[in-house]
Design brief:
Blueprint lengths: L3 H6 L11 E2 L2 H9 L8 E5 L7 H7 L3 E5 L2 H10 L5 E3 L17 E6 L5 H10 L4 E9 H8 L9 H7 L2 E9 L4 E2 L6 E8 L9 H13 L5 H4 L1 H6 L20 H14 L7
Parallel strand pairs: 2-3, 2-5, 3-4, 5-6
Antiparallel strand pairs: 1-8, 6-9, 7-9
Bound molecules: S-adenosyl-L-homocysteine.
Length: about 270
């Protein structure tokens, strides 16, 4: 619980930046502990805001960087934590390779803004060559989609895309009351460990497009949902090693990977997405 005096001290949270500040120190510690990092690791915090996680992170990790879009939050953070390495900017435009040190990969942490959760997740995916892992607070519903199994309502693009490149764990849920202002939904903290070895995907662009197309008409058979995708890419013979009367939601992540690689070896010329 926060007192009205504390509330008064908080500058106006900005809705356009998706600001819901953590006000429960126990939860903050629990999130930071989930990072499982060492003193030599490069830590990148997305959206430090007023520093609920930052104040704990800076104690343990000398190589700490934060990206924050809100100028007034950046000013406040710099005042609070002298010499803090906080970059004012949009994480969606951030160059992750600029902070990855040599062959050391980045550990990402953040209570990320809910209005751009998917964009941030895909941005991380685009940069997995320099990211080791991520501990993120997202809406519970997004967490459930990320870890979903085939044949469930939650299983879809997010599940397949991310499970193909990361092992993902739903760590714990966080009630609305842990934030100011309170969000409309329950949150979850997840951990993603990215690994290039997880699946051998020959053509990541094709994989993404295949998954998107397959789920674009979830109730239909693959034959139906992939028709336009195949036509656009001049794939006439669909004699792949898979039963196309199945629906996307019945395919395991592994089956999507195998199919994608098979299509890739068949593909002539550049892909049409
Ligand atoms: N980590 C803090 C703040 C969470 S609120 C806490 O737990 O209390 C989300 C934070 O992300 C806000 O500080 C918001 O200003 C910041 N933010 C929103 N959009 C952003 C973007 N595109 N790039 C970087 N930071 C962003």
């Amino acid at each position: 619980m926060i007192s009205s005096r504390q509330k008064y001290q908080m500058y106006n949270p900005k809705k356009r930046f998706g600001q819901n500040f953590l006000v429960d120190d126990n939860i903050s510690s629990k999130i930071v502990r989930s990072l499982d990092a060492g003193r030599d690791d490069v830590i990148l915090e997305i959206g430090p805001g007023r520093g609920a996680l930052t104040k704990l992170l800076v104690k343990d990790y000398p190589e700490f960087v934060a990206v924050e879009i809100d100028e007034s939050a950046v000013t406040e953070l710099k005042e609070k934590f002298g010499g803090l390495n906080v970059i004012r900017g949009d994480v969606l435009e951030f160059d992750f390779s600029s902070v990855a040190g040599g062959n050391r990969k980045i550990k990402v942490i953040g209570n990320i803004p809910y209005n751009i959760t998917s964009e941030i997740l895909f941005r991380l995916l685009d940069n997995i060559s320099c990211i080791d892992s991520a501990v993120l607070m997202v809406q519970k519903e997004v967490a459930e989609r990320l870890v979903a199994s085939p044949e469930t309502k939650q299983y879809g693009i997010l599940s397949v895309q991310f499970q193909a490149f990361a092992s993902i764990k739903h760590l714990f849920t966080v009630p609305r009351t842990a934030f100011f202002p309170k969000p409309d939904v329950t949150s979850s903290v997840i951990r993603m460990n990215f690994s290039k070895e997880l699946n051998r995907i020959d053509n990541a662009v094709l994989f993404r497009s295949l998954v998107r197309n397959a789920f674009s008409k979830r109730r239909k058979t693959l034959k139906n949902s992939l028709k336009d995708f195949f036509e656009a890419n001049n794939i006439i013979n669909t004699d792949f090693n898979l039963d196309f009367s199945r629906r996307a939601e019945t395919l395991t992540v592994e089956e999507f990977v195998l199919l994608s690689n098979e299509i890739n070896s068949y593909l002539r010329g550049p892909m049409v997405i």
